[in-house]
């Protein structure tokens, strides 16, 4: 969530086990007794400031296209758990998730919009599985250009089906 927010967009997530989710607050804030009962936890502001510069460099590299998704995952993956940048992203992500949960639980319109977006995304994946449900043979898709061609073709066919359905569903003259 932290990297997405720093890149300028919000992740639209479907959180499981909402009853088990904690609310995270900065250590500098006093936690009200009512929140302590539901399991509020602390976030280290020092950890965020300690890895902030590195985290901003990572985001700038992603934005400029100098860092691949794989490299970003290597820098933020579970193997980097002791890294100050990883800790900063993790702690900031906890704060952002807390804000998301507050909006989710208190704003019915926001909750409805989140569910609509997630269901729409899942519908596209369901359509993609219906278009091609098999496996790619071992002799195909080993090279990067082959994978791009396969993925691009699949996305194009999905978009064609969506466009055709949209056209057929819209009321028009003589329909």
Describe this structure in words.
The chain is mainly alpha-helical and 175 residues long. It has two domains: 105 residues, no CATH class; 59 residues, no CATH class. The protein is 63% helix and 3% strand. Helix 2 links the parallel strand 1 and strand 2. The radius of gyration is 21 Å and the shape is globular. The mean pLDDT is 83.
Structural topology:
Layout: H1 2-7, E1 24-26, H2 33-36, E2 41-43, H3 45-64, H4 69-76, H5 84-106, H6 108-131, H7 144-169
Helix pairs in contact: 3-5, 5-6, 6-7
List key phrases describing it.
single chain, 175 residues, mainly alpha, two-stranded parallel ribbon, globular
Distance between the termini: 45 Å
The overall pLDDT average reads 83
**Gyration radius, rounded:** 21 Å
Order of helices and strands: HEHEHHHHH
Task: Give the beta-strand count.
Answer: 2
- The coarse silhouette is globular
- Strand content is under 5%
Unreliable runs: none
Q: How many domains? A: 2
User: Strand order within the widest sheet?
Assistant: 1-2
* Strand-pairing-aware structural class: mainly alpha
What is the count of DSSP helices, taking H or I runs of 4+ residues? 7
Largest sheet: 2 strands, parallel
Helical content (DSSP H or I, runs of 4+): 55-70%
